[in-house]
Write a structure and sequence with these properties.
The protein has 249 residues and is mainly alpha-helical. It has one domain. The protein is built from eight helices and no strands. Helix 2 packs antiparallel against helix 5, helix 2 packs parallel to helix 7 and helix 3 runs antiparallel to helix 8. It is rod-shaped, with a radius of gyration of 27 Å.
Length: 249
């Protein structure tokens, strides 16, 4: 489900709950709206609001940590890819075909992660990485310098493959669906209580509308952070694109 769809669902539930509370106010008997009743409801809603704040903070922390982790892994993979190309260049002309394969694999990875045709990103783990490793291993060094460079190239190839596998394994959502469902339910209850004890006028409805938009906007941003390779808050492809542009040169 897209981030916009989740944000819309949150808005519909939260603002709908507020409207239900407003209409319940006129339907309930007067003694249900007494000062004692309001105090009891406020205590219960205060408890729910505290739990909601804790869960919301946990979701923000989880989504931001996932975003930063993938961003750092991408930068590390870009640096290792560029360094691998330079090691192969120092190895000599025998590694020219391997460098070309590395350049093609990098270009293919760039197209898969940030497709230009509007399709969803694909985080496939291989993208020619294992073939590249086998080609580096098949090189026949002629002296100690080339043997050292081959060892370095193999280590860097492993690091690049590891980063690709990490991105692949972390491609799923880091936000638990039950957390989202429970959080939306709590927010709906809170807004229903706001409408239940609020006067029925345009100012109150407009205020609740703005608050519902703010809450749904926050949920939208949380889900966007959890999907860093698409949407509005996606990770920049500048580091990896710059690395791919330098390969083979």
């Amino acid at each position: 489900m897209s981030s916009l769809a989740i944000g819309s669902i949150v808005f519909a539930c939260v603002f709908g709950g507020a409207l239900v509370g407003i209409f319940l106010r006129s339907a309930l008997p007067e003694h249900h709206l007494s000062a004692e009743s309001k105090d009891a409801v406020k205590v219960g809603i205060g408890l729910i609001a505290t739990m909601t704040a804790l869960v919301l903070g946990l979701l923000v922390s989880t989504a931001k940590a996932s975003y930063d982790t993938k961003h750092n892994e991408l930068i590390e993979m870009s640096a290792d890819t560029l360094l691998l190309d330079r090691v192969l260049a120092n190895y000599g002309p025998e590694a020219s075909f391997t460098r070309e394969l590395l350049r093609r694999a990098g270009a293919r990875s760039l197209e898969m992660i940030w497709p230009q045709n509007g399709q969803a990103p694909r985080l496939e783990p291989a993208a020619g990485g294992e073939v590249l490793y086998n080609m580096i291993e098949a090189l026949s060094p002629k002296n100690d310098a080339q043997r050292g460079l081959q060892t370095q190239a193999l280590q860097l190839a492993i690091e690049v493959l590891k980063m690709r596998w990490l991105l692949f394994e972390q491609s799923g959502s880091s936000i638990s669906t039950p957390f989202l469902v429970v959080l939306i339910f709590w927010l709906t209850i809170i807004f229903m209580s706001f409408g239940l004890f609020a006067p029925r006028n345009v100012t109150v409805v407009a205020t609740l509308l703005v608050c519902a938009l703010s809450v749904s906007g926050a949920m939208f941003l949380i889900v966007e952070l959890d999907r860093p390779f698409q949407g509005l808050i996606q990770i920049s492809n500048a580091p990896f694109r710059d690395a791919v542009a330098r390969l083979g040169k």
